[in-house]
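Mods, move this if it's the wrong board.
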Amino acid sequence: KQWYQRRVRVVAGGDGGKVALTTATHLTQHGVTVHVLVLDRPTGCDGLMNLLRENTVEGISALPSVVDIIIDGTQDRNTLNRWPSWLDGVIEWTEGSSAPLLAIDPQHPPKMPRSPAVAKWSCALGAPLLSQGTVGRLFLVDIGLFPAAFAEHRIAYTSPFFDKFVIPLHRTSPS
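Not the wrong board. C-alpha cells:
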C-alpha cells in the first residue's frame, strides 16, 4: 500500500500521548486515515483534540479490527507506574493485532503488573529508560531543536544528520 492509503491507530495517554496526538495530526494532514483513542487526556492538548475531533473513537471496542500500524503513546513512565484500569485492554487489543507497533518515548519502570506490548520501533527524545520490556529498533530523530538552541547562543553546530532526519541505531554485541 502507498503510505496515504494506510489505516493508523493512535493510542494517546499520559506523557507520550502528547507526541502521539501530534503524530496523528501530522498524518491526517497528509491524508492518512487515523483512528485516535484517547484514554487519558494529556494536559495542554485542547487544540490538538479539536483538530482530531472527527478521528477520535470512544473506547477500545470502537477501534477498527484491521489497521496497518499502531502508534502507542501509553508506554511512558507515569502511565506505567500508575497502571490505569484501561491499560490491560489496550495491551490485549494491541497484542491481538497483527499490525506493527511504534512506541512513543517508552520508559518502563522496574515493577509493572505485566510488560507492555512489544514494539517493533520506538521514537524517543532521548535514549529510552528501560528496566524491563523491549523497545524494538531504535532511531535517532532530528527534531530541529538543537540547531536553533546553538544558533541562539552563537555556537557553531554541525548536525550529524546531514541530509537525513532519521538515523537508525544499531545494537552491538557485549565484549
